[in-house]
Design brief:
Radius of gyration: 22 Å
Strand order of the largest sheet: 1-7-6-5-4-2-3
Order of helices and strands: HHEHEHEHEHEHEEHHHHEEHEEH
Helix content: 40-55%
Mean pLDDT: 93
Shape: globular
CATH class of the largest domain: Alpha Beta
Structural class: alpha/beta
Number of domains: 2
Number of strands: 11
CATH superfamily of the largest domain: Type I PLP-dependent aspartate aminotransferase-like (Major domain)
Length: about 375
């Protein structure tokens, strides 16, 4: 199929213009001195909050951001994330799951093709299902399948949805080639960096930044490396405006706590400067991987997520129990979280682990297998 080469953001720009003409476009206009949830304050009397019993104080937004819960703290952290990632804007959601569902469902409009990797997180899968686009599930990390789907599509617009670091297999797509394929076929690229942000790339900006790629949309989870909760969607200003008006998990949800927004803002600078911690994390993960591989175990992927594929469910559960009896707490991952026949022990390395801790885990593994 021949497709007119245009930016995937053009559709959003046209849609926003249509809303503007109809008087339906909703803008964010935070007032730095505006009213807080409650009876009133220096900025005036608020009759928009859902803080019925007056308990929100400085901890709650009091309403959805479109209604009256749009606070300066939200915008401060959104602007900081945008600067960190080198993009125009970002938007704060109450969770990473809500961010992914809202992002994908808002873009999966009728007449659009969504190409979704087979191992995408449930939040991305649900977002694609909630939208009314045609969804094509491509084999995991299969670039040729993505290229073929985009080339043969009937739809004018298409979005390719992937994770940058898959949490069950610890593997990653070739983002540079994927971005090139999307550009060649006039498609947009959405990248979930939940498990990569803070861990990979310059200043911890993720695997897209490490590959020199700036996707049309990316999700940064606050519940992983930043140790908080929430999710950010970052990209062009048109994407933020589109989500502000169309992402149901944002529009119809109480705004994130201003305390969360303030803490996330403070931790961004810590994460950006944490090159030493990231290096220690790599060293610990490499030590664990090397020791497991020396035992002949099937260790997948790269980075701080270390999955050891066992296969049978009963054997996987036996190993997990035996490790726990030796003081090593791990998670047995079984179908349907992973394909049948690939049950595994999933371990995650953190920077607080010492060499002695890694050696203790390896000793326990040797005793069990």
């Amino acid at each position: 199929m021949f497709h007119v080469k245009r930016s995937p953001i053009d559709r959003l720009r046209s849609g926003l213009a249509a809303l503007e003409r109809e008087g339906l476009l909703r803008h964010d206009r935070p007032d730095p001195e505006g009213p807080r949830p409650g009876a009133g304050g220096p900025g005036g009397l608020s009759l928009r909050s859902n803080d019925y019993l007056g308990l929100a104080g400085s901890t709650g937004a009091g309403a959805s951001r479109l209604v009256g819960g749009d606070l300066p703290e939200h915008h401060r952290v959104e602007e900081a994330v945008a600067r960190w990632l080198g993009v125009e804007s970002s938007l704060l959601f109450s969770s990473g799951f809500a961010a992914n569902v809202g992002l994908v469902s808002a873009l999966a409009q009728p007449g659009v093709l969504v190409v979704s990797d087979a191992l995408n997180h449930a939040s991305l899968v649900d977002g694609a299902r909630l939208g009314r686009a045609r969804v094509l599930v491509s084999p995991h990390l299969d670039l040729d399948a993505v290229r073929r789907a985009l080339r043969e599509r009937q739809e004018v617009d298409a979005w390719v949805v992937v994770e940058s670091y898959y949490s069950m297999d610890a593997d990653s797509p070739d983002l540079a080639t994927l971005a090139s394929i999307c550009a060649e076929h006039g498609a947009g690229l959405l990248v979930d960096e939940a498990h990569a942000a803070g861990i990979f790339g310059p200043e911890g900006r993720g695997l897209a930044a490490a590959a020199g790629v700036c996707p049309e949309g990316r999700m940064v989870g606050l519940g992983k490396a930043l140790g908080l909760q929430g999710g950010m969607v970052a990209g062009p200003a048109e994407l933020r405006a589109w989500l502000w008006n169309h992402a149901r998990s944002f529009v119809f949800s109480t705004g994130a706590s201003p305390l969360l927004a303030r803490e996330a803002y403070l931790r961004l600078s810590v994460v950006a400067a944490a090159d030493g911690a990231r290096e220690r994390l790599r060293e610990r993960a490499s030590r664990l991987r090397a020791g497991l591989e020396q035992m002949g175990l099937s260790v997948r992927g790269h980075g701080p997520i270390v999955p050891v594929v066992i296969g049978p469910v009963d054997e996987t559960l036996r190993i997990a129990r035996a490790l726990q009896e030796r003081g090593v707490h791990v998670q047995a991952i079984r179908p349907p979280s992973v394909p049948r026949g690939t049950a595994r022990i999933r371990m995650t390395v953190n920077v607080h682990l010492t060499d002695a801790d890694i050696d203790h885990a390896l000793t326990a593994w040797r005793a069990v297998v």
